[in-house]
């Protein structure tokens, strides 16, 4: 069975499938298929954000470092989602970390190349940025819930 092209992988991915075909073709030129096994760290908080991924199979744990507690998983995300959004904003440093929890197959993108596409086509840029902001809001909300879960202590009456 022949493997799918990057365009084909994007054409069936929830994050971009409904974009115009020419936009998907341009985006496909910036990516390549990857496989990473469980335990592989995609990135660490404050590292250089130079890539991102559209996940097709597997699971990734989004985490951040808490002094005295180590890496705290705030959310696990599965297929059909975006991994990484910090590449979109200067200074291009990861706000969270990510480690493969279950072997993944994904399309990995060169962030600088996608930023160039965004700059060349403002309409494409607005659409992609809107979608990424949606993911960002979801991840920040998940962080908030996880922090409440970790640090909310029952109040003790005097």
TrEMBL record:
Protein name according to UniProt: Cyclic nucleotide-binding domain-containing protein
Domain Cyclic nucleotide-binding: 15-135
Extent of the signal sequence: none
Species whose genome carries this gene: Paractinoplanes durhamensis
InterPro entries: cNMP-bd_dom, cNMP-bd_dom_sf, RmlC-like_jellyroll
Matching Pfam families: cNMP_binding
Taxonomic lineage: Bacteria, Bacillati, Actinomycetota, Actinomycetes, Micromonosporales
């Amino acid at each position: 069975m022949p493997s799918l092209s990057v365009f084909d992988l994007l054409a069936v991915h929830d994050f971009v499938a409904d974009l115009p075909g020419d936009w998907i073709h341009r985006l496909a030129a910036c990516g390549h298929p990857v496989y990473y096994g469980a335990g592989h760290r995609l990135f660490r908080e404050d590292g250089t954000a130079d890539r991102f991924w559209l996940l097709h199979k597997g699971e990734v744990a989004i985490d951040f470092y808490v002094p005295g507690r180590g890496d705290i998983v705030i959310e696990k995300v599965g297929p059909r989602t975006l991994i990484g959004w910090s590449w979109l904003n200067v200074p291009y440093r990861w706000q969270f970390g990510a480690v493969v929890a279950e072997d993944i197959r994904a399309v990995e993108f060169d962030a600088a190349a996608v930023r160039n596409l965004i700059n060349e086509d403002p309409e494409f840029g607005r659409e992609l940025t809107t979608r990424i902001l949606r993911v960002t809001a979801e991840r920040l909300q998940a962080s908030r819930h996880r922090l409440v879960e970790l640090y909310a202590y029952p109040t003790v009456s005097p």
